[in-house]
Write a structure and sequence with these properties.
It is built from 14 helices and eleven strands. With 326 residues, it is an alpha/beta fold.
């Protein structure tokens, strides 16, 4: 399974140049059965990245463009009157897929955005009083531009908290990466090279990996205490007005287990926790206003907390169950 996961990462990186950590984190979120808020400026390949992962994982993919006119039914679907049968019939919306990309989510009004609350947490949609389960696995990928404010709304905390991670792709790191991107574009002869990739998995196999992580990736008691200490530190930090919720603790736990699996281990080490911590917690804390205007950002505070919390002793083999882990 590790070999197949690494093949997916390599396949994405063959097209999406120089962003292996971003690819690993996205795959971590999928294997942890979580959602991702991808926040960055336009043109950094957020949509392409999602399509590449969907193609390599062999899963269904649909996209919705966020606009001010978008209605809940444009996402979820609804009941439509059928003249031939003289009755209402259910028409499912684009959310009924495996990987659902919601582009520019912050351009959608709050009423429409609330349609995602149930599906992102409970993996189901209620239409006409009937609850419909989503396909397994189901992954919500939302994008937003953090630098543009005209015609946008601020996402409510209840919605943001439902994303397992908030990730930024960033610009190409080096001039060599930028050169490689341009050269590959000439080779592809297309702005969308996702069709060049062949699926390496399918939805059933990916769901099996998710179940394997839940059942077989061990978390020692010292790692559990390490996660709890990090999250509790966000609630006690003098620059933070509102710290991470218990959902943040669970998100960090799930992401750490999935990342350990990607690394080929069946147990979590402290490095797995620190690798995932900033992306799992940076959107779950609220900076006090006087510090925010001074330019203090959540990711820097999370990094400061990681530097101050004592790291538990690292183990190189899978500990026995007697240590109280799960």
């Amino acid at each position: 399974m590790k070999k197949r996961v690494q093949e997916i990462i390599d396949g994405v990186e063959a097209i999406y140049v120089g962003k292996r950590p971003v690819v690993e984190k996205l795959l971590t979120a999928i294997l942890a059965n979580g959602h991702v808020l991808l926040e960055d400026v336009p043109g950094t390949g957020k949509t392409l990245l999602t399509k590449l992962i969907a193609q390599l994982c062999g899963m269904g993919y649909k996209r919705v463009q966020g606009t001010a006119e978008l209605l809940p039914s444009d996402i979820l679907g609804g009941e439509v009157w059928d003249m031939s049968s003289q009755s209402f019939r259910l028409v499912k919306g684009p959310v009924f897929t495996n990987i659902f990309l919601f582009d520019e989510i912050n351009r959608v009004p709050p009423k429409t955005l609330s349609a995602l609350l149930e599906v992102s947490e409970e993996r189901q949609v209620t239409i006409g009083g009937e609850s419909l389960k989503m396909a397994r696995p189901f992954f919500l990928m939302a994008t937003q531009n953090p630098t543009e404010f005209e015609g946008t709304w601020v996402l409510p905390e209840a919605q943001v908290d439902r994303f397992l991670m908030r990730i930024s792709t960033g610009y190409p790191r080096t001039i060599e990466d930028e050169n490689a991107l341009l050269k590959r574009r000439i080779q592809w002869q297309s702005d969308d090279p996702s069709s060049l990739l062949k699926p390496l998995l399918d939805a059933e196999s990916l769901a099996g990996m998710q179940a394997h992580i839940e059942k077989n990736v061990h978390v020692g008691s010292e790692i559990i205490h390490y996660i709890s200490t990090i999250v509790r530190a966000t609630r006690e930090h003098p620059k933070i007005a509102l710290g991470a919720s218990p959902r943040g603790s669970l998100a960090l736990l799930k992401a750490s287990r999935a990342y350990a699996f990607i690394q080929g281990r069946d147990f979590v080490i402290p490095d797995d926790v620190t690798y995932c911590a900033i992306d799992c917690l940076n959107h779950r804390v609220t900076i006090k206003m006087d510090f925010e205007v001074e330019g203090v950002r959540s990711h820097s505070i999370i990094g400061e907390i990681l530097g101050s919390v004592p790291v538990p002793r690292e183990r190189t083999t899978r500990p026995e169950a007697r240590d109280g882990g799960v």
